[in-house]
Design brief:
This protein has 271 residues and is an alpha+beta fold. Helices cover 26% and strands 27% of the residues.
Length: 271
């Protein structure tokens, strides 16, 4: 849709070109959400494309994903053979509710910053122990784990004008085995639950990540692959019945049931 309140589009080649932040500014990456509804409080867009950030940078330490990386670029990424968790990129992306136009325009950073419970890139980056690099308008960059960055439905730790620069996935997570389950009430609907677990080849460092069923990502970590009862108990200790996210895509009781069911399937698969 057209945004008839916009009077200026800035295309800075450096963030120093932006100047003092104003409440009627908005960062523009893919714009797939920004252009989906009226932005009556915004009159200036700041286009991040001209900053020229490399979409994906792989090193021995892991993978850095620029906030401006397109979903289609991440889906096409292969990675070294020892990064056994890379197919999870495509599994999570394929759970998106999106058209081909969204696929080629939406950005990884945009999905994370939207901070919706069913944000598939939140599920992916939280499950692979991603760390956000945030650029404040004034001050040094700060590092925040994705699991802590999202604080609730459409809520996160960004301060006004602060920018998500990138998400780094460590090689220690990318080399782990994984299993994933996802459920929607309709065939192409928004996720009601997206559960991922990762574990080392020796069965150590088992990490269960619960998303979509909860307002924010939840980590449950074990020194080794847990027994069924141990995992169920840990879920109950971490999540009360009213901690599940209830909306038109599923009741809290339904999402709790699906979380139990998928968590046990994943545990058994990885064991």
């Amino acid at each position: 849709m057209n945004l008839n309140t916009i009077t200026e589009v800035k295309r800075p080649v450096s963030l120093d070109d932006v100047g003092p932040w104003r409440s009627n500014y908005a960062w523009l990456a893919g714009g797939t959400w920004l252009y989906s509804e009226p932005q009556i409080a915004t009159d200036t867009l700041i286009d991040l494309d001209a900053l020229g950030w490399a979409p994906l940078t792989a090193t021995a330490e892991g993978l850095e994903i620029a906030a401006t990386c397109r979903v289609a670029d991440l889906h096409a990424f292969k990675g070294p053979a020892e990064w056994k968790a890379v197919p999870l990129f495509r599994d999570c992306i394929d759970s998106f509710l999106m058209s081909f136009k969204i696929w080629n325009a939406a950005t990884i950073g945009g999905n994370i910053v939207m901070s919706l419970p069913a944000g598939a890139m939140i599920s992916l980056s939280a499950a692979l122990e991603g760390v956000c690099t945030l650029w404040p308008r004034d001050g040094a960059p700060r590092q925040v784990p994705v699991v802590d960055f999202v604080t609730g439905n459409h809520k996160n730790l960004l301060d006004p004008g602060e920018l998500l620069r990138s998400v780094r996935l460590p090689a220690t997570a990318l080399t782990k085995r994984y299993a994933m389950r996802q459920m929607s009430l309709t065939r192409l609907g928004r996720s009601a639950a997206l559960i991922v677990a990762t574990v080392n080849d020796n069965g150590r460092d088992f990490l269960l990540t619960i998303t979509a069923a909860t307002p924010r990502p939840v980590h449950l970590r074990f020194d080794r692959t847990p027994a069924a009862g141990e995992l169920r108990q840990a879920i109950d200790e971490r999540l009360l019945a009213d901690d599940y996210f209830q909306d038109v895509h599923g009741s809290a009781a339904y999402k709790q049931h699906i979380t139990y069911y998928f968590a046990e399937q994943i545990r058994a698969e990885l064991a």
